[in-house]
Amino acid sequence: MYRLVFSQVLQRLDAEAVHHFTVSALALLARLPLVKRLLHRVFAPHDPALRVTAFGVHFPGPFGLAAGFDKDAACAEAVAALGFGHVEVGTITAHGQPGNPRPRLFRLVRQHAVINRMGFNNAGAVAAARRLRRTRGVPVVIGVNIGKTKVVPEAEATADYVASARQLAPLADYLVVNVSSPNTPGLRNLQAVALLRPLLTAVKQVADATPRRTPLLVKIAPDLADEDVDAVAELALELGLDGIIATNTTIKHGGETGGLSGRPLKARSLEVLRRLRAKVGDRITLVSAGGVEDVDDVWERILAGATLVQGYTGWIYGGPLWAAHIHRQLLRRVRRHGLKSVTEAIGRTA
Ligand SMILES: Cc1cc2nc3c(=O)[nH]c(=O)nc-3n(C[C@H](O)[C@H](O)[C@H](O)COP(=O)(O)O)c2cc1C
Fold first, then answer.
1. How far is CA 63 from CA 130, 140, 294, 315, in A?
2. 6: annotated binding-site residue?
3. Atom 10, ligand 1: residue with shortest CA distance
């Protein structure tokens, strides 16, 4: 049914227009407590066998929505009600900004992929904090992903991230330093350890100072050389970070300028996950994103060492109940393997 709606209607419309319509519809849904609760009861993961705990946070299921969909923290509860085990909002920057000129979002339907060069369009950290403070009507784990404001020079990047962290860390179940989006000039240079160490150290001080000590993760690009993946992993261990999210979109493609996500990213994201697991073992949490389309992908990432798995592009092609469906199948998979919980599967093939 969704495939028909997608090919006959959605695919013919501007991708960003569909995105904004979807977010608005979900934001409206988030304001309807009864509907939201009903959907949550039906579609959210509830079986104890799907529960995972990472960095002290309890997730109802391991599969969540990656950053970039709910950039302004407008509809996280509705997203959770549709079956995602967590929602990573953002990227949020200290100052609001419009992002790059349109068009900036392109579907590659045959490849089940997307290219985007959105450029962190968002209303800024203060506006996001206001939204996050609103009471949550259904339980939802919210990660907050922060990035650098475009006009802020690289030399002042740390202060800019710290400003966002001060606003948002107290409201986040976990905080992510995003240094891997390709659409803010120079951002990915911050992945170099010499720049990353002072940045993460400063943000960690802020995250550590919140009443509940907010877990801190770093999100990396799939285009890092293997040695650089290792270097970030070592740094994460050295600084006592809580986790690494791998990966963001890739710029290694021949299409429109921007980051490529979806099916073509699958192999490299899995490769980076395996490399990270070999380096850090279970000492820090690994979150895998990139090209996840179905339960087989989620299962493969968990076996390879991911405690949490995220998807975004697969949702565009998979339809509204994509995550609910994946969690349901995952539960069957856990039982078929005679496991008590999905947690027992983490890192089994690593
Ligand atoms: C339209 C779009 C916007 C995105 N925006 C962000 C962002 O703001 N911050 C971020 O960390 N990742 C962003 N991402 C990357 C995703 O979070 C994810 O890491 C990547 O798309 C790989 O997962 P996927 O193949 O399941 O989409 C974006 C992805 C897409 C498709």
1. 26, 13, 11, 12
2. no
3. 67
Give the 3-state secondary structure of residue 87. Answer: strand
Closest CA to 289 of 93, 90, 64: 64
Q: Is 181 annotated in the active site? A: yes
What's the gap between Cα 254 and its chain centre?
25
User: Is 291 annotated to bind ligand?
Assistant: yes
CA–CA separation, 75 vs 28, rounded Å?
A: 8
Query: Is 201 annotated as ligand-binding?
Result: no
Per-residue pLDDT of the chain (350 residues; tens, 9 = 90+): 888 876 777 777 888 988 988 999 899 988 889 999 999 999 999 999 999 999 999 999 999 999 999 999 999 999 999 999 999 999 999 999 999 999 999 999 999 999 999 999 999 999 999 999 986 767 899 999 999 999 999 999 999 999 999 999 999 999 999 998 888 888 888 878 789 999 999 999 999 999 999 999 999 999 999 999 999 999 999 999 999 999 999 998 988 899 999 999 999 999 999 999 999 999 999 999 999 999 999 999 999 999 999 999 999 999 999 999 999 999 999 999 999 999 999 999 87
Q: Kindly report the protein residue whose alpha carbon is nearest to atom 5 of ligand 1.
A: 68
Q: Which atom of ligand 1 is nearest to the CA of 19?
A: 1
Q: d(Cα 94, Cα 96) in Å, to the nearest integer?
A: 7
CA neighbor of 191 nearest in space, from 232, 243, 240, 160: 232
Helix (H) or strand (E) segment spanning residue 262: strand 259-262
Task: Please pick, among 180, 181, 269, 288, the residue that the annotation labels catalytic.
Answer: 181
Supply the residue whose CA is at minimum distance from atom 15 of ligand 1: 248
What is the 173 CA–ligand 1 centroid distance (Å)?
19
Q: Is the pTM of this model over 0.90?
A: yes
User: Ligand 1: which residues within 6 Å by Cβ?
Assistant: 66-68, 71, 90-91, 105, 114, 116, 118, 120, 145, 178, 181, 219, 248-249, 261-262, 265, 289-292, 311-314
